[in-house]
Specification:
Helix content: 40-55%
Shape: elongated
Distance between the termini: 63 Å
Strand content: 5-15%
Oligomer: single chain
Strand order of the largest sheet: 1-7-6-5-2-3-4-8
Structural class: alpha/beta
Largest sheet: 8 strands, mixed
Length: 1083
């Protein structure tokens, strides 16, 4: 005998049971009592009940919820018809919004609404008790014994899942007494229930995404509102208590709010407003906001500010004015002095681009500091927050920005959409390196922009707050605020080129010099700087990486000489003579049979000055404390080294002799001529002040001497030797922000890079780059000295010297400089031409897809939306209430039969366009907003037949990408690099050492976890160094373990955790992607 129970298993579902009842009986009455109802569930059974004359549905409401809500307000729950209707229809509306995005499901929901309105079904709501029962009663029109109906009861609600998907427990009863009892109970509850108000039914369609009344303009506004979120609410009161003399500038208020939100979401962010917009002020305001929101008053946050030495005084003054409590300011070189890193809640790093190299010890110290958890007084631990301040965080290469991001993000477990940043950056770095061999500048430029466009969208944009002066000028609200407060930014004019010509004799010498410097076959080999490379093995072994170090030193010397010939012939001659003398010293030491190798002592200086006795004494004193010192004989070097020194000596002798005959300087003459004719012309230099920059201290001295000889006496030369001594004089004569009495004792400043940061010189507005800074960061920093808030001039003029075409060909100066500039422009944007007029001014910044726009496109839309809200708040309020999934049809030949869908989960937004042929493309915000953009009077059209399938495809693409991302975060990481695998395998070996302590095991496990998540860039390298160093001289396991612990205890591993991403868990509902809006296009 079979059972009457069924569980939705093995095709024995409630839906099939209902179909069977209607198939074999002439059902006249169908009554359903359910605790939970979905319109999509009704649609599933409608085809069976459509010919049934009498249909009644009785639905319960969540009484417990309403009672709780009443009690929270201090009221007794007193059910009434209106409240019951509100609760029921809110649930139905929610059901509609969460239903599967499917044409068939939607048709069912439309049909449900129509059936209620037409009276096809009668529906009531029971307001007084929770209805947990699920009863489906089927009866024929006339009673007769032996099977005139049946009752199904159990756990299944009238939902799609309850009908056939969930595991349920139901039973079908056919006895007359069961049917009678169920019917009588239903009738009693029906009488107690309330009829639904048809006006609520009509609102279901109007207030849900099923509405067909949305216009393209409304969908466009909804797109902007959903994308920008809280950013549209400008709150000037979020920044208060500004010190006296400081203005509350709206762009800075926005930067504070945006930066704070990014910092709290990602544990850190880049503050990259261009030079001169007040990044120090914004940092101070964010720090103060964090202080009062981070557990205050029971916890009083500590802030650590890390600055270059030249910037320390400026930061001390600013933070003192802002009265920020518990702040410590240290210089870059003092990181090792921090003994209690867990004390600090917030770290601010000024000129953060100086920490771009992950192989530098300073970087390692900073990363360990940033990754050490902050410990509050109550013992709770918290992630540190990090602000990286720099107008130029990207210096040359993709790995630069990656390394900076890794200061507050784990490279393989990022909070960004690109969860595995290591893999992402590896692809971009490989693409970038391939360009080194490319000769076609057009290809280089195009590919560089492509690489950094991707980095910008995926990494830079969500982590960066950045405004350029162009943004402030072109966005009405910002511009008005600046105008109202009298703030003026000068206009940086296109760079002026200054050419200097070489006569035939000098040009021939120049060509020959370049050939000697750069021709690896016939030119200088730079043997003098590669001595340890050519030592025989017994001596060479004491110098780690001897070959690499030697090659690097030779390259540095070659670069130095090329830079010097670009700087000034005078500086080049000095460098050339020093190299010649150093080479001669090596020859003399070979001749005398004793060669001193002492990298930390000035061997050349002592030998040239005939102070060999002093040198020998120094070497003897330091020999046991300095392991790099070695006293050698000619026999200690491999064959060929002495010949190489002789080869270089001959070339150097020729060069020195030829350059000694050059007693004139066409570059200086052109400069002097421009001084009298243009650089002090009142039409461009009304203040009569000039800044001259050079990378070479010898060039600055040469220029000052030369100018004074020609009558220019009011000159201040600044180098690293006297910077601190002349700061007060600089402020009095060149700082427009100086609060004391302005002076005019000096008109000209000639400086090295020591004045490229940390000082205001904006009483001047004309800059001369006497030599080309080979680093784009320095170039931008120089201009930033005069292009600042409060600049006295309306224009900034930049003059750049350009050598002959021979320089361009031989050292590829323009290629190298432009490659760096393109990289920086594409990733972060700059609103001034700084190299030459051949280069288009670009904002290609965080927000601009079109590099020729010269503006922050995303900011433009945000500011437009803010103004619309200010002018028409009722419209914005109405749009904000439009339901998710709102959609519209539009006319477009360009996007014919395609659909764009805005999809979001808690990690990312996606704008996916699906074409008529099923191909798809993920768009950037700028690309998407230009698709959604619509006029107010544009009318909507019906959705085309492919709409639902295309939205579903977009949703599927989004979900697939999320799943792929999750795979990369699971415990077994298949993309570990060789160094990581080697380090983890080595650590595994320690676990089998006898008598290993629980603490040591725990540290090893946490070290493996830190390596697999990419927490520290240097950790695996240090472990692998230990492995390599002990290969030749094996240690006992216990000693080796001690050595390992010495390494591990240098890293903050105590709070390394094993987060939930290592465990494969079902996707929670809140993680599911949500359709925000969509649009389909017909021709």
């Amino acid at each position: 005998m079979g059972t009457s129970f069924f569980t939705n298993e093995k095709e024995n579902t409630l839906l099939e049971k209902i179909e069977g009842v209607f198939k074999y009986k002439k059902v006249h009455f169908f009554d359903a009592l359910v605790g939970y109802f979905r319109a999509s569930g009704y649609f599933r059974i409608r085809k069976f009940i459509q010919d049934t004359p009498k249909i009644r549905l009785l639905v319960g409401i969540n009484v417990d919820k309403l009672t709780y809500q009443a009690n929270q307000q201090g009221l007794l729950f007193n059910p009434n018809a209106e409240q019951s209707q509100e609760e029921f229809f809110n649930e139905v509306k929610k059901n509609i919004q969460e239903a599967k995005y499917d044409k068939e499901v939607e048709d069912g929901m439309y049909q449900f609404i129509e059936d209620i309105v037409s009276g096809k079904i009668s529906m009531r709501i029971h307001p007084k008790q929770n209805i947990h029962a699920k009863i489906y009663i089927f009866r024929e029109e006339e009673y007769h014994p032996h099977g005139y109906g049946s009752v199904i009861t159990g756990s299944s609600n009238l939902t799609e899942a309850g009908l056939e998907k969930n595991f349920e427990f139901n039973v079908e009863l056919r006895y007359d007494d069961d049917i009678k009892y169920a019917t009588e109970t239903f009738e009693r509850l029906w009488e107690e229930s309330v009829e639904i108000d048809l006006s609520h039914v009509e609102k279901l369609k109007k207030d849900s995404y099923l509405s067909t009344d949305f216009t393209p303009y409304e969908i466009y506004l909804k797109f902007l509102l959903e994308y920008f979120g809280k950013s549209i609410d400008f709150d000037p009161n979020s920044v208060s208590d500004l010190p006296k003399g400081y203005m509350k500038l709206s762009y800075q208020v926005d930067a504070v709010n945006d930066g704070y939100a990014k910092m709290m979401k990602h544990n850190g962010f880049f503050l990259s407003d261009v030079v001169g917009l007040g990044k120090t002020i914004v940092s101070a305001l964010i720090a103060k906001k964090f202080f009062f929101s981070n557990g205050f008053p029971t916890h009083r946050s500590h802030t650590l500010v890390i600055v270059p030495p030249a910037m320390k005084t400026s930061w001390e003054d600013t933070l003192d004015e802002f009265k920020l409590d518990n702040v410590t300011i240290i210089t870059n070189g003092s990181l090792h002095k921090i003994k209690n890193p867990e004390r600090y809640d917030l770290i601010i790093v000024d000129e953060a681009h100086k920490f771009r190299s992950d192989t530098a010890s300073m970087y390692n110290e900073l990363q360990k500091l940033c990754k050490t958890k902050a410990v509050h007084n109550d013992g709770s631990v918290h992630d540190k927050k990090v602000i990286l301040v720099s107008a130029t965080p990207l210096n040359n290469r993709p790995e630069d920005i990656a390394n900076l991001v890794y200061l507050f993000q784990d490279s393989k477990e990022s909070t960004l959409e690109e969860g595995n940043l290591q893999r992402f950056f590896r692809e971009q770095i490989d693409r970038y390196r391939k360009l080194k061999k490319e000769q076609d500048m057009e290809i280089v430029s195009k590919e560089i922009k492509s690489i950094y466009e991707k980095i910008r969208i995926k990494v830079v944009e969500p982590l960066t707050v950045r405004r350029t002066r162009t943004d402030l000028k072109e966005n009405e609200a910002y511009k008005k605020d600046l105008d109202d407060q009298g703030v003026i930014f000068p206009d940086v004019k296109p760079p002026h080129k200054i050419y200097y010509q070489l006569d035939p004799n000098l040009e021939q010498l120049y060509d020959k010099t370049i050939q000697y410097l750069s021709d690896s076959a016939e030119g200088l080999k730079y043997y003098r700087y590669q001595a340890i490379k050519y030592l025989k093995e017994d001596k060479k072994s004491k110098y780690k990486k001897a070959d690499m170090i030697s090659i690097q030193l030779a390259g540095i010397m070659k670069t130095l000489l090329v830079k010097r010939i670009d700087s000034s012939f005078y500086a080049f001659k000095q460098s050339l003579i020093r190299y010649y003398n150093a080479n001669r010293v090596m020859l003399e030491m070979f001749k005398n049979g004793t060669i001193y190798i002492a990298p930390n002592l000035k061997v050349n200086e002592y030998m040239i000055e005939d102070r060999e006795d002093e040198l020998i004494k120094l070497i003897e004193d330091a020999r046991y404390s300095d392991p790099t010192i070695e006293i050698c004989t000619p026999d200690d070097f491999v064959e060929g080294f002495a010949d190489g020194i002789l080869h270089d000596d001959k070339i150097l002798s020729d060069l020195v002799a030829m350059w000694e005959e050059i007693d004139y300087d066409p570059k200086l003459e052109v400069f002097i001529e421009r001084m009298g004719r243009e650089l002090f012309d009142k039409s461009i230099n009304n203040e009569g002040k000039l800044l001259v920059f050079s990378e070479s201290k010898e060039t600055t001295q040469y220029l000052m001497t030369s100018l004074k000889e020609r009558g220019y006496s009011r000159i201040l030369m600044v180098t690293s030797d006297n910077r601190n001594d002349v700061m007060s004089v600089l402020k009095e004569n060149f700082d427009a922000k100086y609060s004391g009495t302005w002076k005019n004792d000096y008109d000209i400043v000639i400086s090295t890079e020591v004045l490229a940061e940390g000082v205001n010189l904006h009483r001047a507005n004309v800059i001369v780059n006497y030599d080309t800074p080979w680093n784009s960061t320095r170039l931008m920093q120089r201009i930033g000295r005069v292009n600042r808030i409060g600049s006295v001039a309306k224009e900034v003029h930049v003059f750049n010297f350009f050598p002959t075409s021979k320089v361009n060909d031989d050292i590829e100066l323009e290629k190298n400089a432009k490659m760096k500039l393109f990289a920086f422009h594409a990733a972060l944007g700059e609103d001034s031409q700084i190299y030459s007029t051949d280069e288009n001014p670009e904002t290609f910044g965080l927000f601009d897809k079109d590099i020729d726009e010269e503006r922050d496109e995303k900011l433009r839309y945000l500011m437009w939306l803010r103004k619309l809200k200010q002018d028409n708040p009722e419209l914005i309020k109405r749009i904000s209430k439009l339901p998710m999934r709102a959609r519209v049809g539009r006319k477009s030949k360009l996007f014919k039969n395609g659909t764009i869908t805005f999809i979001r989960n808690k990690r990312r937004d996606a704008f996916t366009f699906v074409r008529e042929d099923g191909s798809s493309e993920e768009l950037t915000f700028i690309e998407a907003v230009k698709v959604f953009e619509a006029r107010m009077d544009e009318r909507s059209l019906p959705l085309h037949e492919k709409h639902h399938n295309q939205v579903s495809l977009a949703l599927s693409i989004f979900t697939d990408m999320e799943e792929q991302s999750k795979i990369l975060h699971r415990k077994v990481n298949t993309v570990q690099g060789p160094n990581e695998k080697k380090a983890i395998a080595y650590l595994d070996g320690f676990m089998s050492i006898s008598n290993i302590s629980e603490y040591e095991e725990d540290m090893i496990v946490k070290a493996k976890r830190a390596i697999s998540s990419g927490k520290f860039q240097q950790l695996q390298r240090d472990i692998n160094k230990l492995k390599t160093s002990t290969k030749k001289t094996p240690l006992r396991p216990v000693i080796l373990l001690e050595k390992l612990m010495e390494i591990l205890t240098q890293y903050p591993l105590e709070h390394v955790t094993f987060n939930e991403r290592e465990v494969i868990v079902p996707v929670k509902k809140k993680d599911c992607p949500e359709i925000i809006i969509s649009e389909s296009f017909i021709c």
